[in-house]
């Protein structure tokens, strides 16, 4: 496995691979690699791509300094995880290389209005500006590629898809399913911050989503059931929403068909998110 930290070397490497006829599969991560990330590496590999994974804890997408300070960092096991899961090239750029102005503001920001303002965006002002800005930079350096994103961060995937459309990046965004632990909890780097008791409470998120996934209902009914399930488990919900799977605009009770249910809550001071498809039925049917 090749390891690169220099931006020009990364750009040259991706370019050279394309020149040799390889398709570059980019997997952006913030490290603390786990089975969720590994599933993206394997997806890229099974598409025949040259797998280029990046590890960069992007401070611009943290609106809370203590969240950034607590974010897990496991550089040694990241190298092992990447190597054992088919990564061809691991890129670990420095903060100084990515954002030389930091901690001062970087003059250029990519902002995806609408999709980026809702849900996570409403609770974490500036979060998706930080996400879109760093992903735009990763795309600009990597060049034409397939980029793999987990549905675990569903809204992030929607923001990136919109940005790719609007700014004409030569990038195919590939969405990959959520990887869960056996108990149903969506795997996340932040899960290690949960106490044993907190972890069992956190299961309410996936349980609530599984429950509403079982039978069609109106958008309001789905929201009520989600609220109730999370409330009973003592999870402080940040939001519970049923939304259009592309724009993430909130669904109303006149809509029918497949939509996305998205939930966020705080357990042990750890912010958790999860989502799943739901079916909307016609009112009074
Ligand atoms: P992160 O390192 O948390 O920024 O995540 C990097 C990428 O891995 C994002 O596209 C995430 O959506 C994806 N990812 C994280 N956890 C999971 C999971 N449990 N299942 C699938 N993809 C995931």
Notable traits:
Rossmann fold; three-stranded antiparallel beta sheet; 2 domains; binds adenosine monophosphate; globular; 285 residues; alpha/beta; Pantoate--beta-alanine Ligase, Chain: A,domain 2; six-stranded parallel beta sheet
Topology:
Blueprint: E1 2-4, H1 7-19, E2 24-29, H2 35-46, E3 50-55, H3 65-70, H4 75-84, E4 89-91, H5 95-98, H6 120-123, H7 127-142, E5 145-150, H8 154-167, E6 171-176, H9 196-214, H10 219-232, E7 236-243, E8 257-267, E9 270-280
Parallel strand pairs: 1-4, 2-3, 2-5, 3-4, 5-6
Antiparallel strand pairs: 7-8, 8-9
The structure holds adenosine monophosphate (AMP).
Describe the structure.
- By secondary structure, the chain is α/β, with parallel strands linked by helices.
- The protein folds into 2 domains: 2-176, Rossmann fold (3-Layer(aba) Sandwich); 189-277, Pantoate-beta-alanine ligase, C-terminal domain (Pantoate--beta-alanine Ligase, Chain: A,domain 2, 2-Layer Sandwich).
- It has 10 helices and 9 strands.
- A 6-stranded parallel beta sheet has the order 1-4-3-2-5-6, with helices on both faces. Strands 7-8-9 form a 3-stranded antiparallel beta sheet, covered by helices on one side.
- Helix 7 (127-142) packs across helix 8 (154-167) and helix 9 packs antiparallel against helix 10 (219-232).
- It is globular.
- The termini are far apart.
- The model has no long low-confidence stretch (mean pLDDT 97).
- Residues 29-30, 36-37, 39-40, 149-150, 152-153, 176, 178-179, 186-189 line the site of adenosine monophosphate (AMP).
């Amino acid at each position: 496995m090749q390891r690169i930290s220099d931006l020009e070397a990364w750009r040259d490497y991706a370019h050279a691979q394309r020149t040799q006829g390889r398709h570059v599969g980019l997997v952006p991560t913030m490290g603390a690699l786990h089975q969720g990330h590994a599933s993206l590496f394997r997806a890229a590999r099974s598409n025949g791509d040259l797998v280029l994974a990046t590890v960069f804890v992007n401070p611009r997408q943290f609106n809370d300094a203590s969240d950034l300070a607590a974010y897990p960092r496991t550089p040694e096991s990241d190298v092992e995880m990447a190597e054992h899961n088919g990564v061809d090239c691991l890129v670990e750029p420095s903060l100084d290389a990515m954002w030389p102005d930091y901690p001062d503001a970087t003059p250029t920001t990519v902002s995806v209005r609408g999709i980026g303002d809702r849900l996570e965006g409403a609770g974490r002002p500036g979060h998706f500006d930080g996400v879109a800005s760093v992903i735009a930079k990763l795309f600009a350096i990597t060049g034409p590629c397939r980029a793999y994103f987990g549905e675990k961060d569903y809204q992030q995937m929607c923001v990136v898809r919109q940005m790719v459309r609007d700014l004409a990046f030569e990038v195919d965004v590939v969405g990959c399913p959520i990887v869960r632990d056996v108990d149903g909890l969506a795997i996340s780097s932040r899960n290690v911050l949960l106490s044993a008791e907190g972890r069992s409470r956190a299961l309410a998120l996936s349980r609530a989503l599984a429950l509403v996934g079982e039978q069609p209902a109106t958008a309001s009914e789905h929201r009520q059931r989600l609220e109730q399930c999370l409330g009973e488990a003592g999870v402080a919900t940040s939001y519970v929403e049923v939304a259009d799977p592309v724009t993430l605009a909130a669904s109303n009770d006149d809509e029918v068909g497949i939509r996305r249910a998205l939930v966020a809550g705080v357990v042990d001071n750890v912010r958790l998110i999860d989502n799943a498809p739901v079916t909307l039925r016609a009112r009074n049917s």
